[in-house]
Amino acid sequence: MGTALLYDEEMTKYKLLWVDPACKIEVPERLIVSYEALVRSGLSDRCISIPAREASDSEILLVHSELYLEAVKKTPYMTLEDLKEFTLQFGDVYFHPNIYHCAKLASGSALQLVDSVMTGKVRNGIALVRPPGHHSMHGAANGFCVFNNVAIAARYAKQKYGVKRVLIVDWDIHHGQGVQYCFEDDPSVLYFSWHRYEHQNFWPNLRESDYDSVGKESGTGFNINVPWNNVGMENSDYLSVFCHVLLPVAYEFCPDLVLVCAGFDSAIGDPEGEMCATPDIFAHLTHLLMNLAGGKLCAVLEGGYNLTSLAQSVCQTVQTLLGDPVPQLANLRGPCKSAIESLQCARSAHRRYWSFLKHAADPPMTDISTKHIKSAMEEEEKTEMAEEERCTEGKVWPEPPERLCPPVCSASVLPDDVVCPDGLKPLSSSKDLEPLLVSKLKTAAVDGDGVTTFSRLYTLVEKLVANEIRNGLVLVPDVAAAMMCVVQDLTSDLVKRVLVVCVGKEKELDYVTTDGKVLVVQISSEDSEEHRSKYYIPVCLKKGCSDTSGFIQAVLGLLLPLGYEYNPDLVLLVRMPGSGVVDSMWQQLIGLLQGFAKGHTLVLMQVNEKACMGSTASALLGHPAPPLQDLQTPFPEDGDALERLRERLQADWKMLQTTS
Ligand SMILES: CC(O)(O)CCCCCNCCCN
Ligand SMILES: [Zn+2]
């Protein structure tokens, strides 16, 4: 299934008609450069074009009051003076004779996107719209927004398709207070937002944008705010919040639909955000959400005011929605102190509502009240600082790397008598191995056809590294022996860093590097205290790998942050026989691991486990993993042990930090 793209140039046909410094950044060119970048890069041709439509009154009334709608209806007939007058009652927004029409198209586009995804016409999609939506409220326009596009889409999805749980992820740099107000008492809609806050010194300067606004009444726990109290946040900060706050809750919530308030003012160069995350971060944020809700993801444009980073960020998002390999993120050095404080506050505020956050630490000692005074002083200093020093136009960043799709997506190396699963390309060619290697294999008690398998295996690895193949599945007689050989000989010159993810445990992995060429994370039922090192990390699940709750927690809270920091060139996923890992979890793991090494994942399985080849192939081919159903409360010891393990390792691995 494909990716929907909604765009209508009519939504470029309104602009600011008078002087207003607060609104001058919201220009038609935002939409034009975004769409043109998609056309120029060839991405728009790969999408399924869905026409925009006007939202009807009843659809708009899902969120807004009749009084407000009737008032906005009058704006097309207003004189310039009337429009100015009408605008005065709202904050940081402007009206135009054509903005009502465009606002209906923006909301209608979001609904068209929901229809396309919910009817299975497409898997996911993006709507390029203006005016944006997430600040507009029941009875008021605000922050360039007229109708709350995403809030309307959430209510529409519930009403028309009986969607039980909607996750709204708001990665725009402003707090979508309109969305928060709409759903704060509603447990069927989980709203997550990060936003520049600076202890309430940043627009919209709301007390309720802080981390302690967790929702109310039956919606308590279903509103997550992560305030950024400094500017300059980077890729590490964003990924840490996804791994340690959003994703654990999102997986526990198990949404049927994911809506994204896709604002790109959180990218480097944006005058509003003043952050430093690069456009390719949106490839990863999108990727990390794509295995939720069976892949049903609708992204709706919100903000983004630097035309260069906006266009690049939109392209990065669309390319991931299309299933292209995500780019490697280099030198992630862990979240900054302020980000750690923010994520620790958010985690501790929600630990009583989400079992996946149960073991979160207490909030940081720093008393934020004094921070108000301090940051006000900082604010003064900043304004004294010459404007150009702070201006973001001076910011430069590298073009996002090209994300080439290998000619072959998934290859397989199977014994001759095993039927190849649909979609996989059997790798037959296998070059002769060096005699030395053959003799080594022989000593590893590998028999004749095992040597053939190994030679094909090495050919596969070479093709992965050469980006001729994206990923592969290998069935071997003895998976532990195969892993040893691959690890020992792979790290020769082919790859610089191999992440080995070992699911289940047959025997001690006696091969562990200390030079960092291999990082082994082993998830199994056995506790192995000995020879744990920076590069060999055993994770013990009391009930074993069949405990999906414990497993996904270890993946999100430990494996993902480690993987991002380690930044491997190849991922070796080893499924030990008898691991007991649940199929949907196995597919989720393969899906999530695609975020590393440009998707170069090599799955090693034992021949007697060929029954799960089908689901492995499906995940390797990029099909969304099935949702993890009815997750039990994680075993307390496991959650606790994971927290302790993170604390022990965070000296070596900065991305594991969750406490300041
Ligand atoms: C969709 C959105 O969240 O990007 C809208 C942001 C509105 C910002 C209003 N204040 C602007 C002050 C200008 N320096
Ligand atoms: Zn914004």
Provide a descriptive summary of the structure in words.
By secondary structure, this protein is an alpha/beta fold. It folds into two domains: 2-16 and 24-326 and 334-394, Histone deacetylase domain (Arginase, Chain A, 3-Layer(aba) Sandwich); 477-656, Arginase, Chain A (3-Layer(aba) Sandwich), CATH 3.40.800.20. Helix content is 37%, strand content 13%. The strands form two sheets. Strands 2-1-3-8-7-4-5-6 form an eight-stranded parallel β-sheet, sandwiched between helices. Helix 1 packs across helix 11. It binds 7-[(3-aminopropyl)amino]heptane-2,2-diol and zinc ion.
Topology, element by element:
Blueprint: E1 3-6, H1 29-40, H2 43-46, E2 48-50, H3 57-60, H4 66-73, H5 80-88, H6 99-118, E3 124-127, H7 149-161, E4 166-170, H8 177-183, E5 189-196, E6 223-228, H9 235-253, E7 257-262, H10 281-289, E8 297-301, H11 307-321, H12 337-350, H13 368-384, H14 387-390, E9 408-413, E10 425-426, H15 435-443, H16 448-465, E11 469-476, H17 479-490, E12 498-503, E13 518-524, E14 536-540, H18 548-566, E15 570-575, H19 583-593, E16 601-606, H20 613-620, H21 636-649
Parallel strand pairs: 1-2, 1-3, 3-8, 4-5, 4-7, 5-6, 7-8, 9-10, 9-11, 11-16, 12-13, 12-15, 13-14, 15-16
Helix pairs in contact: 1-11, 6-7, 9-10, 9-12, 9-18, 10-11, 18-19, 18-21, 19-20
The chain binds 7-[(3-aminopropyl)amino]heptane-2,2-diol and zinc ion.
Zinc ion (ZN) is lined by residues 172-174, 263, 265, 272, 302-303.
